[in-house]
Amino acid sequence: MQAWSAATVRLSKDTPRPLGVAHTRAPGQWPLRILFIGCGVAVGEGVLTHDLAVPGHLGRILAVGTARGVDIDVVVDPEMTPTTALAALSRIRVSHYDAIVVMLGAADAAQLTPVAAWSDDFRR
Length: 124
Fold this sequence. Notes:
4 strands; globular; alpha/beta; 5 helices; 4-stranded mixed sheet; single chain
């Protein structure tokens, strides 16, 4: 697993990732404000915009399901852990959002973080 993880990290440095503003929008009235934070697939490896990554797909699905617009601010890092996510959240006014979507665990799984340690970090 560790060899696979190291190879994946090397390959991922050459993989395209979204550039520019970490935001995506699904058009519509009375937009929902969502904060999307995470690692792994949340980063959007393989695409050049967050519109084509998980946040963009989520926004479009929510817009159709709610008949409202959706504005999603994206805070992602391939190596984000619950601890670094908490640090990132401490710099954000979370009361500004209607919902927060959290996708964590991939970086910890790749580093073979023990489940008990990950659980403790996540609970914090």
